[in-house]
């Protein structure tokens, strides 16, 4: 790879051991993918934050990197952690888990990384512009940034994102290059999508069929950001789709040659919803996968304020939006109805299985895909009005 003078100095160890190791990772990655050079990034989003997902090995790696003087060169943000740092005791998070989680967050903070702990940084003002190069790791955020914002990122792994943060660059390949941002499968949606769960079901179905291809959707007439984030997250969970296009909605739309056409009907959406749903009544309903926007929290407050759910529920979001929701009083009907706004974490990366829950409800295709294996949960999948009052 052709490196600039500064990149070469980092590669040679002149900027310290942490930068040398990081540049080593980036160069190796660039060679694997045939990148000829690096590209500067304006922000990095790091995954691998929950103690549940990275364990002691991950914690040791972070501590060692921080101990070598690693410092970020660009604004860098964290994915959700394994607990709400303010209410972990009330939420029955085991104490030894909490201790390790705090050590992980502190190691990241030592490197200069902001403890945002959200998978939806775009809802707290971190919104890269169209064409901007970034290095984000959380798969749902990658899909949103590429597809809805038109920013450019590959799906980074935890270590490669961290290396990009420390060096301020990432290898120039894949979705950083305009000519690669082209759909190679068409999804013709022949039904109305009426709820977030419908978008989740569509995403689950398409992720399985598209695998790592880039879908162009036809037939979706309207979709707000909550629906788009759930669609992207669900496709990234059942497949590994890092970008999608919707004619008239996403800022980019390009189609190559004569790709396969996948037709999705109402029957497919209903079948996907049925297969993801155990039919059981949940002990806990979790809303906000990916993390909820302020408007979504407001909508939940309105819904549960009018009719109290028949089970416990969480609205997962960032700390910043939780504080804003509290300031606007959205927390009051939620708490009065037996729910809580949960910040910094989510239903999948917290130790749900150790907290006494067995059946968890969700309207997100991503959560429905991950809860059985990662949290040993049975899933109640459906529209909020269904799972909250089942
Ligand atoms: Fe975010 Fe957790 Fe879902 S990290 S995308 S809320 S599984």
List keywords for this structure.
single chain, about 400 residues, alpha/beta, Aconitase, domain 3, 3 domains, five-stranded parallel beta sheet, four-stranded parallel beta sheet, 14 helices, 14 strands, about 15% strand, globular, binds FE3-S4 cluster
Short description:
The chain is built from 14 helices and 14 strands.
Report on the structure:
The protein has 390 residues and is an alpha/beta fold. The chain folds into three domains: 5-177, Aconitase, domain 3; 182-272, no CATH class; 277-387, Aconitase, domain 3. It has 14 helices and 14 strands. The chain has helices spanning 5-11, 17-32, 51-67, 95-110, 139-149, 158-167, 196-210, 225-238, 266-276, 294-306, 319-327, 331-336, 365-375, 384-387, and strands spanning 38-40, 44-46, 76-78, 135-136, 169-171, 183-189, 215-218, 245-246, 255-264, 284-287, 312-317, 339-343, 359-362, 378-381. It has a five-stranded parallel sheet. Helix 8 crosses helix 13 (365-375). The structure holds FE3-S4 cluster. FE3-S4 cluster (F3S) binds at residues 79-80, 119, 140, 233, 289-291, 316, 346, 348-349, 366-367, 370. FE3-S4 cluster binds at residues 79-80, 119, 140, 233, 289-291, 316, 346, 348-349, 366-367, 370.
């Amino acid at each position: 790879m052709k490196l600039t003078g500064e990149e070469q100095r980092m590669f040679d160890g002149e900027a310290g051991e942490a930068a040398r190791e990081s540049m080593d990772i980036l160069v190796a990655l660039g060679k694997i993918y045939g990148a000829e050079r690096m590209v500067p990034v304006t922000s990095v989003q790091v995954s691998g934050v929950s103690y549940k997902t990275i364990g002691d090995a991950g914690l040791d790696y972070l501590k060692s990197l921080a101990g070598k003087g690693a410092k970020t060169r660009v604004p860098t943000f964290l994915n959700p952690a394994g607990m709400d740092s303010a209410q972990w005791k009330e939420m029955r998070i085991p104490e030894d888990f909490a201790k390790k989680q705090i050590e992980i967050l502190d190691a990241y903070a030592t490197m200069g990384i902001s403890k945002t702990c959200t998978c939806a940084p775009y809802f707290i003002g971190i919104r890269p512009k169209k064409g901007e190069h970034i290095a984000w790791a959380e798969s749902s955020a990658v899909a949103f940034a590429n597809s809805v914002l038109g920013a450019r990122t590959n799906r980074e792994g935890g270590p490669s994102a961290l290396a990009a943060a420390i060096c301020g660059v990432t290898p120039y390949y894949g979705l950083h290059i305009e000519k690669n941002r082209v759909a190679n499968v068409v999804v013709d949606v022949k039904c109305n999508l009426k709820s977030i769960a419908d978008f989740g079901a569509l995403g689950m179905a398409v992720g399985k069929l598209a695998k790592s291809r880039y879908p162009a959707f036809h037939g979706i007439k309207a979709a707000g950001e909550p629906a788009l984030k759930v669609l992207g997250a669900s496709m990234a969970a059942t497949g590994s789709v890092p970008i999608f296009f919707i004619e008239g909605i996403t800022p980019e739309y390009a189609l190559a040659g004569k790709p396969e056409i996948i037709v999705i009907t109402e029957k497919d959406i209903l079948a996907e919803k049925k297969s993801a749903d155990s039919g059981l009544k949940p002990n806990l309903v979790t809303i906000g996968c990916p993390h909820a926007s302020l408007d979504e929290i407001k909508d939940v407050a309105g819904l549960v304020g009018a009719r109290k759910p028949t089970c416990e529920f969480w609205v997962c979001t960032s700390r910043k939006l939780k504080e804003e929701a509290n300031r606007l009083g959205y927390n009051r009907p939620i708490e009065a109805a037996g729910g809580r706004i949960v910040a910094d974490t989510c239903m999948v990366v917290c130790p749900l299985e150790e907290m006494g829950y067995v059946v968890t409800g969700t309207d997100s295709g991503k959560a429905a895909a991950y809860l059985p294996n990662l949290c040993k949960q049975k899933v109640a999948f459906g529209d909020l009005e269904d799972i909250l009052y089942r």
